[in-house]
Design brief:
heterodimer, A: alpha+beta, Glutaredoxin, 9 helices, 14% strand, B: two-stranded antiparallel sheet, 76% helix
Chain lengths: 220, 161
């Protein structure tokens, strides 16, 4: 009986030790993904969290690169009006999907946004990148050190953020998103799909608010 | 200066050529630089912060439209060398190339086809878009003044002019 008890104790201790070891070896970040999420024909499962009311009848899917200056133009000139008139009012929501192709720092910047998402700061980090964008591609403004500095300034948990970014945890996620863009014929950034109840419309480039308004108003 | 312009553009063929060059370059560069969109509606806009880029595009188009027909005139009418024509074409091409935004379809195609080499090339054109356009304007301006000077001299001494 005692012998059996010792054997059982050893097995239990071994299992506990194994579970503890595996948990400490892998990063403790959680991945919050709805793997079945689609908007129109686009799989947005690996994209950003939804900005705005998830039950809004229309979704704008934006394909972008954090080093693209036209995306910067759209972010500063068109998006605020769309946000105010359509997203805040619950008529439209927005999902950002990466098409990180411009330079070597582009995929890393996209991965960093998902590391921020682990700490529920995706959109804050996204906005920080587009606010901090410098005009030159791969000039160092979005290198690993700067990406970590942005996270530090946002008071994220740096141990979690660093381990996430350094391990390339979201590298495949960004690749998947870029492939989604290519599969849907996106040939530059920013690229948009406006997905409504009766179908979807594709838009290329940093188009002005008037164009979005015209399309959105016909869909609502 | 006015003499040279009058000499060339009194011929309606060269005036027409100039209008075609100006409108083609202007519209082409404005589309490339996303000041004009053709789909889903034809719409033009100048986003804030990009006004200087717009002025440079208009200047390059205007100078190209001025310089290229003058040089074609020199070659056709005066049977002169094509040397100065090179400056005008070179200035127009580098001015246009700087507008091939790496975010857009051209940059995307180049990067997709040539990989990191293409990315480096388009990044260079994007990073130095404004200085490249200023250099192009400089080349076109120099070509314009040298062409005007030669036209004055050549027309004076050419018995057929």
């Amino acid at each position: 009986m005692n012998k059996l008890g010792v054997i059982l104790a050893v097995i239990i201790i071994t299992i506990i030790a194994w579970v503890t070891a595996s948990l400490s070896a892998s990063p403790s970040e959680t991945v919050n993904l709805d793997m079945g999420r689609t908007h129109g024909t686009i799989s947005t499962a690996m994209g950003s969290p939804i900005l705005g009311d998830p039950s809004a009848p229309i979704t704008i899917v934006e394909f972008g690169d954090y080093q693209c200056h036209q995306c910067y133009n759209w972010f500063h000139n068109t998006k605020p009006a769309i946000f105010q008139e359509y997203i805040e009012t619950g008529k439209v929501n927005l999902v950002f999907v990466d098409l990180a192709f411009l330079g070597r720092d582009s995929p890393k910047a996209a991965q960093a946004t998902y590391c921020a998402e682990d700490q529920e700061m995706y959109w804050e980090y996204h906005d920080t990148l587009y606010t901090s964008q410098e005009s030159k591609i791969d000039s160092g403004w979005a290198n690993t050190e700067r990406l970590k500095a942005f996270a530090f300034n946002m008071e994220l948990d740096m141990e979690l953020f660093d381990s996430c970014l350094d391990s390339g945890k979201y590298s495949k996620r960004v690749q998947y998103n870029s492939q989604q863009a290519r599969d849907h014929g996106v040939r530059g950034t920013p690229g948009f799909f406006i997905v409504g109840p009766d179908g979807q419309e594709q838009l290329g480039g940093a188009q002005p608010f008037s164009v979005f308004k015209q399309i959105l108003d016909t869909m609502i | 200066m006015i003499f040279a312009i009058k000499t060339v553009y009194s011929n309606s063929k060269y005036l027409f050529l100039s209008v075609v060059i100006f409108s083609t370059m202007l519209v082409g560069l404005l589309i490339l630089s996303e000041y004009i969109f053709l789909e889903p509606y034809v719409v033009s806009h100048i986003p804030s912060g990009t006004e200087f880029g717009f002025v440079l595009i208009v200047t390059i188009s205007a100078l190209s439209a001025l310089v290229l027909p003058m040089n074609i005139f020199r070659i056709n009418i005066l049977k002169k060398s094509k040397q100065k024509m090179g400056g005008g074409i070179f200035g127009s091409i580098i001015g246009a190339a700087a507008g091939a935004c790496s975010c857009g379809p051209i940059g995307f195609a180049v990067i997709s086809t040539f990989g990191s080499v293409g990315a480096t090339a388009t990044a260079f054109l994007t990073n130095y878009e404004i200085p490249i356009r200023i250099i192009a304007i400089g080349i076109l301006a120099i070509t314009y003044f040298t062409t005007v000077k030669s036209l004055k001299t050549e027309c004076k001494f050419d018995p057929n002019s």
